[in-house]
Amino acid sequence: MRLGGWIDQAAVAVLYRQGSAGCEIFFIQRAKKPGDPWSGDIAFPGGRKQVEDASLKDTAIRETWEETGLDLFHHGAFKRKLSHQLTRSHRHNAPMIVTPFLFHWQGDDEVNLNHECDDALWIPLDFFNDRLMRSSLTWKQGHFSLQMPCYHYAEKTVWGLTLRMLDQIRQRRELFV
Fold first, then answer.
1. Which CATH number is 87's domain given?
2. How many Å apart are CA 109 and CA 107, to the nearest integer?
3. Is residue 44 part of a domain?
4. Cβ atoms of 62 and 146 closer than 8 Å
5. Is residue 135 part of a domain?
6. Structural domain of 26
7. Would you say 101 and 60 are in contact if contact means Cβ atoms under 8 Å apart?
8. pLDDT tens-digit profile, the chain (177 residues)
9. The whole model's pTM is what?
10. Domain count, the chain
């Protein structure tokens, strides 16, 4: 769904729980597909707002259910809406606003990934607060390349928009109570 008729809107769910390693954050790995610029990337579950979604929070809840089988309606305690993020749509390369919503996950570990996801994992928040874990990757677009910040965890890479959102919340412990 488009904001004002010209900017796509999307929402993601940032799920956290208390695990054996302290606070953990939930991520999906996008399915690998030819032509998808974010193919195989680590991300928060979410997607575009649909006409049937009453709000962007409903979008995050619906998309999380569709992609992972995690039922935020029954097992996710909504905490707050986080800062909007401006990015671009891979469909039209046009501007898109992505809104993250923070949920405390209170369900079990069982996930049921759909065709959009190859994997799901919980990563301890402390991992991202360790400056020694921060790295970089070379992002290429045609003949252009750029060094981008990232984290490598269990052969998976957190970078880009997901990292930008994570950086805004990772040191704000008060969000996770």
1. 3.90.79.10
2. 7
3. yes
4. no
5. no
6. 2-125+157-172
7. yes
8. 555 566 889 999 999 999 988 999 999 999 998 877 678 899 999 999 999 999 999 999 999 999 999 999 999 999 999 999 988 766 666 788 999 999 999 999 999 999 999 999 999 999 999 989 999 999 887 888 999 999 999 999 999 999 999 999 887 878 877
9. 0.91
10. 1
